[in-house]
Amino acid sequence: MSTGFMRRTRSAHETRLLERARCVLPAGARSPTPSPEYAMVVKEASGSRIRDLSGNEYIDYLMGSGPLLLGHAHPEVTAAVQQAASRGSSYLMLNENAVQLAEKVVATVPCAEQVCFNSTGSESTFFAMRLARAYRKRDKILKFEGGFHGMNDYALMSNQWTQQTVDFPQAVANSAGIPQGVVQDMLVAPFYDLERTVDIINAHADELAGVIVEPLQRTITPQPGFLEGLREITTERDIPLIFDEVVTGYRLALGGAQAYYGVTPDLTALCKGIASGYPISVLCGRQDLMQLTDPAGLGTSTYVAQTGTFSNNPISTSAALASINVLEREGTYEALFAKGNRLMHALDRIFDEAGIAVQICGEAPAFQVWFSEDPIVDFRSMARADHAMNNRFTELLLDRGIVKAHEKFFISLAHSDEDLDYTVAAFESAIGEL
Ligand SMILES: Cc1ncc(COP(=O)(O)O)c(C=O)c1O
């Protein structure tokens, strides 16, 4: 990228494609901000950069919403995928890569004694909750307000898109079409309030099948002692604790948030960090729970059906093995954290100098700026932040050749010192115009 800031342009071809998309795709373009002016059609991406159809190039901190921990089209991952693709794309049956990958997950993720594969994060959180229900022979699952666990009916409850809050532990469906019975089978607790959570668990222990939590909820770090307390009460009550590490797995550490925060759950869903954007997710955990998916149990009251046509496909498993191979190298996480920390500190300084109150939340590999005077500790404080200002900041960065998600900056190993220098200069300029 040259010196000075880019000037975004939009070609007639990209404009036409966006119009055509609106006719056939109800969601239209999935842009980083609600404004149609900032919609784009991506042409290609490599390393830290993404290019749209009009030829604009951006430094990408959206990173496919998290999976591109190594950057786009990492050469070692691409080579592994190309080789695998020449041997066929999907067998349903076992392949050597899948065994190697399962062994790798067991070796790296603290709770993983056994593993099963799915294609998306939503499937793995869905199967984790099903396993907990089968083990406990009870139906209700407790989640936290503002936590996101994907698109399955049980998961899509009281998440960060909730418009109207209700009293705990009642759940709110975040989509039309979710059966009322499912809403009633979900309980919701406040993230950051261990005492209240323990009270809800104790009050509902006889009907509770499991507790699911994002250990780093969006970009809200857990209060010291919160995950430990959750571990303690769920162990005491023999209620499976599920960590949704779809984002944090392999991103905060090789062993994910459970290694980083030092609390081991019973089950974990992993997804985005594992395979550089190729579709695969992992459900892993305690052997006695995972064993419930053994088809030899078919017909028994505890057998849990868990399969998928594309699960363990050789292309995604080869991408995952190649990705983990890179992540295992010495210095990987130090480098990732150093990059994120540099941007977090720069934002802190520049907003402070500008006299704009913000809260910089999260961990260095995935963080966010919230426009708020008050600390962001849970969903309700996050909802009170100034989201219009956040959208404007995102747009001002897009004008300067920086793409970020509304909700997060995702750091990758591909972000170079030059990218970070440019980004800090873009922050200075964008914040100056806010
Ligand atoms: C924490 C978390 N869990 C689950 C999911 C769902 O994953 P997927 O989109 O692969 O279904 C997401 C997706 O963003 C997520 O952030």
List the helices and strands and how they pair.
Blueprint: H1 12-24, E1 42-46, E2 49-52, E3 57-60, H2 75-85, H3 96-108, E4 114-118, H4 121-136, E5 140-144, H5 180-184, E6 186-189, H6 194-204, E7 208-213, H7 226-236, E8 241-245, H8 256-261, E9 267-270, E10 281-285, H9 287-290, H10 314-327, H11 332-354, E11 359-363, E12 366-370, H12 379-383, H13 387-399, E13 402-403, E14 409-410, H14 417-433
Parallel strand pairs: 3-13, 5-6, 5-7, 7-8, 8-9
Antiparallel strand pairs: 1-2, 2-3, 4-10, 9-10, 11-12, 12-14
Helix pairs in contact: 2-10, 3-10, 6-7, 11-14
The structure holds pyridoxal-5'-phosphate.
Pyridoxal-5'-phosphate (PLP) binds at residues 65, 120-122, 125, 148-151, 214, 244, 246-247, 271.
What's a quick, concise take on this entry?
Helix content is 37%, strand content 14%. It is an alpha/beta fold.
What does this molecule look like?
There is one protein chain. Among the domains are: 10-43, no CATH class; 75-327, Aspartate Aminotransferase, domain 2. Strands 4-10-9-8-7-5-6 form a 7-stranded mixed β-sheet, with helices on both faces. A 4-stranded mixed β-sheet has the order 1-2-3-13. Strands 11-12-14 form a 3-stranded antiparallel β-sheet, with helices on one face. The chain is an alpha/beta fold and 434 residues long. The chain is built from 14 helices and 14 strands. β11 and β12 form a beta hairpin. It has helices at residues 12-24, 75-85, 96-108, 121-136, 180-184, 194-204, 226-236, 256-261, 287-290, 314-327, 332-354, 379-383, 387-399, 417-433; strands at 42-46, 49-52, 57-60, 114-118, 140-144, 186-189, 208-213, 241-245, 267-270, 281-285, 359-363, 366-370, 402-403, 409-410. α3 runs parallel beside α10 and α6 (194-204) packs parallel to α7 (226-236). It is globular. 37% of the residues lie in helices and 14% in strands. The chain binds pyridoxal-5'-phosphate. Pyridoxal-5'-phosphate is lined by residues 65, 120-122, 125, 148-151, 214, 244, 246-247, 271.
